[in-house]
Design a protein that fits this description.
Elements lengths: L16 H6 L7 E6 L13 H15 L7 E3 L22 H17 L4 E6 L5 H14 L4 E6 L13 H6 L5 H10 L51 H24 L16 H7 L1
Parallel strand pairs: 1-2, 1-3, 3-4
Length: 284
């Protein structure tokens, strides 16, 4: 079903328009938008990884949320800005302008429905800037709108317990942590018999990159033909369950705090500076 990992009662599209209109305190109800991508994740993982993980974490967070905290998930954005993986079959990508416009228009729809708190849970490392720009645009348009863009993995979790030092330092894509959590969320899509380890070379300039991660722009094929940037081989289902549980707990707490918080509202509504198409093209 369309709700995926989200409890049906927490899935906003399952409400009728009259039910949405009748929701109490829509101004403080948290609407959560998972933003994923469809892109290669090596030979052992499906192209849906980023969407599965962000939607799965959001769904599990909402499942453990206290009943008195009003929050609903939207369907995930399944196509992201994934040009760094476009050399691999199965990658489906939008350009930055299209993704930006999509997030802004979804955000406008949420606002028109009477909600004033939008949480964007971004699952793809190639597009956080787009989410931040869209969130700022929505705030400029609506002075009483609280829009929070954040990355799925940027809240406390236990993955670090299981990762090698090299993995922590250099892994970026389809490595240990992503493989483990996919074993928990969608085990039938994980094929460990195809898994390979692959790391990028350490970046030569310690000043520009103290940890050795690439400081220059890159595409996935720069690091070899597999599409993997890390080592998925040590991953287990038990690790994935623990990582998922810890992320869900953190996101449930974040949603609870966002529901309870207040933020200064600007009374007048000013059209966003990024509205004009030419300005957006300059930014992207």
């Amino acid at each position: 079903m369309l709700h995926g990992y989200t409890p049906p009662a927490r899935f906003l599209p399952y409400l009728s328009w009259t039910e949405v209109a009748a929701l109490p305190d829509r101004e403080n109800t948290v609407v959560v938008l998972p933003a994923g991508s469809t892109e290669q994740h090596g030979p052992h993982l499906p192209c849906a990884v980023d969407t599965v993980i962000c939607a799965g974490v959001v769904g599990h967070a909402l499942a453990r949320l206290a009943k008195e905290v009003p929050a609903f998930a939207l369907p995930p954005i399944t196509y992201g800005k994934s040009e760094e993986h476009l050399h691999f079959p199965g990658t489906l990508t939008l350009d930055g302008e299209t993704l930006y416009a999509t997030v802004v228009q979804v955000g406008e729809s949420v606002y028109r429905s009477g909600f004033r708190k939008l949480l964007i849970v971004n699952g793809h490392g190639g597009q956080p800037q787009i989410m931040e720009m869209a969130a700022r645009e929505l705030r400029l348009r609506h002075g009483d709108y609280v829009v929070v863009p954040h990355h799925t993995w940027r809240l406390p979790h236990v993955a670090g317990r299981y990762l090698s030092e090299r993995e922590k330092k250099l892994a970026m894509h389809a490595g240990h942590a992503e493989t483990a959590i996919m074993m928990a969320l969608a085990p039938d899509t994980v094929h460990m018999e195809r898994a390979v380890a692959n790391y990028p070379p350490e970046f030569p300039s310690k000043l520009l990159s103290p940890d050795g991660r690439p400081a220059c722009a890159w595409s996935a094929r720069d690091f070899g033909p597999s599409g993997v940037i890390g080592d998925p081989l040590p991953a287990t289902r038990e690790q994935g369950d623990a990582i998922l549980d810890s992320l869900a707990a953190s996101w449930a707490q974040a949603i609870t705090e966002l529901h309870a918080m207040s933020w200064p509202a600007r009374e007048e509504s000013t059209w966003g500076l990024g509205h004009h198409r030419g300005h957006i093209q300059q930014k992207l």
